[in-house]
């Protein structure tokens, strides 16, 4: 019989940091509320949520790294929105955000999740920020809770 480790979706006193980009704030504010609602719905006290704001998605990895190094948070949820129609350097901004956020999690051991919408149009971004395609901020928050619980089980596993 093999062992299985699954993180559940309960929060029990853990601290979460949101790192939120101001660029495309119309969208990122919806990701932020989606993430906060998801955390609170699963048992997180609002007092255990801290929000760090950065100018754009490009800055998310830098701030997330500093948050991880502070040692004060169990998980970090990065939220941003990059829209192709608005920028010729879409690939750089979106690519560096994705690569850098993954790197922060892997290199620091603090679960760090990716709630960055990369969309071709504003309409697509709206759909992923609480309209018909769900809310990527809430998804990233749930992934963070799950990872925190996976880490917890691995730390106590025999
Ligand atoms: N930042 C975003 O978060 N989304 C974008 O769509 C975007 N565009 O379009 O350029 C964007 N640019 C700013 C970038 O993230 C940095 O803040 C800026 O380059 C300063 O380092």
Structural summary, described in words:
By secondary structure, the chain is of the alpha/beta class. It has a domain at 32-78 and 91-147: 3-Layer(aba) Sandwich (Rossmann fold), CATH 3.40.50. Helices cover 47% and strands 18% of the residues. The protein is built from five helices and four strands. It has helices spanning 25-41, 60-70, 90-108, 122-127, 136-156, and strands spanning 16-21, 49-54, 75-83, 112-119. Strands 2-1-3-4 form a four-stranded parallel beta sheet, sandwiched between helices. Helix 3 links the parallel strand 3 (75-83) and strand 4. The longest helix is centred in the C-terminal third of the chain and has 21 residues, at 136-156. The mean pLDDT is 95. The structure holds 5-nitro-6-ribityl-amino-2,4(1H,3H)-pyrimidinedione (INI). The site of 5-nitro-6-ribityl-amino-2,4(1H,3H)-pyrimidinedione (INI) has 15 residues, from strand 3.
**Beta strands, count:** 4
Helix content: 40-55%
Small-molecule binders:
5-nitro-6-ribityl-amino-2,4(1H,3H)-pyrimidinedione
Give the overall shape. globular
Mean pLDDT: 95
Q: Distance N terminus to C terminus?
A: 16 Å
Return the structural class. Answer: alpha/beta
**Biggest β-sheet: count, sense, barrel?**
4 strands, parallel
Strand ordering within the main sheet: 2-1-3-4
Give the CATH superfamily of the domain at 32-78 and 91-147: Lumazine/riboflavin synthase
Tell me the fraction of residues in β-strands, as a range: 15-25%
Low-confidence stretches: none
CATH architecture type of the domain at 32-78 and 91-147: 3-Layer(aba) Sandwich
Write the H/E string, N to C.
Answer: EHEHEHEHH
CATH class of the domain at 32-78 and 91-147: Alpha Beta
How many DSSP H or I helices? 5
Named CATH topology of the domain at 32-78 and 91-147: Rossmann fold
Radius of gyration: 15 Å
